[in-house]
Design brief:
The protein is an alpha/beta fold and 264 residues long. The protein contains 9 helices and 15 strands. It starts with 8 loop residues before the first strand and ends with a helix. The structure holds magnesium ion.
């Protein structure tokens, strides 16, 4: 019996599990298609809000995995909600890509630009390739003037072909050090993203969280009361990943090489 048959639903991380950068993890698309054909409920949960759920759904469809955008939950959604709670009807300085800005604006917050940082009542931080000294300075000015600080995650790195790239946590560390403030985290391992993802399940009773990062996917899944399955195809893997299952205090329910091993 395939290991996946111990469950009827899965929360599944994307980066390092389904793909690395734009390259599918070998065997993952086929494994996901097999799970869906077997009637497993899947909700994808990613700390990466650089794309819209519709865009992730299109990329999955291009790999033969057919799911609606409502089956993809990004940390951007819960981060925008937390920002709106921290500064209802106020203004936000967003260090992140356009899809995150859209979500923040969609929660009724006005977006301020980097020339007027002290107008912001909340600073929102995410992984962002355009991050530079001037955006760090703007964030510090806003935070020094009393703005709240909300971030998608503490994830230090992001699995990519050829080795990990700096993640949201690396940028957030700079903002936290410069401002002396600590961010409220919306994504994994905190509960917000798990609660939203579980609310998208249509009745699965035995649900497991599958991810590649011990400190967010597995720790968060445990915090949400779920069984957890670590895959070694990303951040915790033998190919230069930055988290080591051998030395981590976080112990998943099950460890497998990759998604394909769950349906074999
Ligand atoms: Mg991951």
């Amino acid at each position: 019996m395939p290991l996946s048959d111990n469950y009827d639903g899965f929360l599944i991380d994307l980066d390092g599990v389904v793909w690395t950068g734009r390259e599918p993890v070998p065997g993952s698309p086929e494994a996901l298609a097999t799970m869906l054909e077997a009637g497993k409920e899947i909700v994808f949960v990613t700390n990466n809000p650089s794309k819209r759920p519709e865009e992730y759904a299109e990329r999955l469809a291009g790999m033969g995995v057919q799911v609606g955008p409502e089956r993809i939950v990004t940390a951007g959604i819960v981060t925008a909600r937390l920002a709106a709670e921290a500064a209802p009807g106020g203004a936000a300085l967003v260090l992140g890509f356009e899809p995150l800005k859209e979500l923040v604006a969609g929660e009724g917050l006005r977006l301020v630009d980097f020339e007027e940082p002290t107008e912001a009542a909340v600073v929102v931080v995410s992984g962002w390739r355009e991050f530079d000294y001037m955006s760090l300075l703007a964030a510090k000015r806003a935070l020094d003037a009393g703005a709240a600080l909300v971030a998608t995650s503490h994830d230090a790195t992001m699995p990519m072909p050829g080795g990990e790239w700096p993640g949201t946590g690396a940028i957030l560390a700079a903002v936290e050090v410069a401002s002396g403030k600590k961010a409220e985290i919306a994504g994994k391992p905190e509960r917000h993203l798990f609660d939203l993802a579980l609310s998208r399940m249509n009745g699965a009773k035995r649900v497991a969280m599958i991810g590649d990062r011990l400190s967010s996917d597995i720790a968060g899944g445990q915090g949400a009361g779920l069984d957890t399955i670590l895959v070694l195809s990303g951040t915790s893997g033998p190919g230069g990943g930055s988290e080591d299952p051998a030395t981590s205090d976080v112990k998943p329910t099950l460890t497998v090489a990759n998604l394909a091993a769950l349906v074999a």
